[in-house]
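Quick illustration, no need to memorize.
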Amino acid sequence: MSDEEWERFLRESVTGAADAPVEPSARAREVERRLRERPGQPEGWRTYAPARPRYRTGWYVTGLVAAVALLVVGLFPQQVVGWFGGGDGGQAGAPAAESERPREAPGAEPALRPTLAQPFRGSPAVHWADGAAGITVPEARATGWMDTAQVARALRRSKDFMVAAGLDSRVLRGERPAKAIALLNPHQKDVQDYLRTAMSSTAPTSDTDPLLLFSRFRPGQARPAGDVVKTRGRLTYREGKRGAVEVTADITFVYPVTPAGDRGRDAEVVRTIVRRKVVMSWDDPAKVITEPDTMSLVSYALDMTNGGCSGPTGYFVPPFGTADEQPTDAAHRVDPYDRSKPVNGTRPTGNGCATATRS
């Protein structure tokens, strides 16, 4: 070996050859092993990664609870509604809007007394619509002297009359039913005579009682139990005399009331139930003397329970405390919620009162 080769050998033994293999460190060997076992981005030497939550068991539990809930709702829907306070304590869903006369009376409700918080509890009316929403208006079509648009307007105005006569809060407090009267033909002499007498007399008779057309309570005797009156009914129409459009309203109103002087939370609640049938004629002005947007009354009748039986006073008189003297024989017992039967025209007089089988 020459001197140059020997010198180069000594120098490389100290500094290392450029292409000599390098022994990996312990850290490098550990990283290489992890990469082989778990491909992906290596974790830092001092990096903390929290354990990932496992959801598989949670989803199983959630699905099981949902399945059980659906099963309970399917098997006991009425009880579930009651648990959550729905329907004012009722047990069934709201019925569809009434488009024809029902074939039977509504089903029985639990024997629960009404309260100020739930004035319709224990009554089929708990499922009925509130106020004007419970009055079904049919689709309009050209009839008699009216085209389709005119019939639609006549139906709207007919509903307005029933709302003004039976739902207006001021009328219910005994005030004059001005809105309803404004819809009546001022040239119909017999009706105008009735209105003048009924609205001014302090001693109405069975023929001049304002209750024949309007729902009224004496403010000093009764006050509404809440702001809601439940209704159910419908309008129908046909061609009447002289080409008139004759609209018939058949509507049941349920008025929950409480004694006027009792402001306690446990005040007694009585439901006065009134079913009205009013036939209205929208006359052809070319054949009948009338005014625009007014109609003539063909007939009007009502069935009433829990409204007093001591003779006409011009106001409903709910039987608070003890039941008013009412006939108890079978001929005078009626289900005020049974709309499958025709209106009998039961007036609030001693001989015509009926005892409600339920309220």
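The mean pLDDT is 83.
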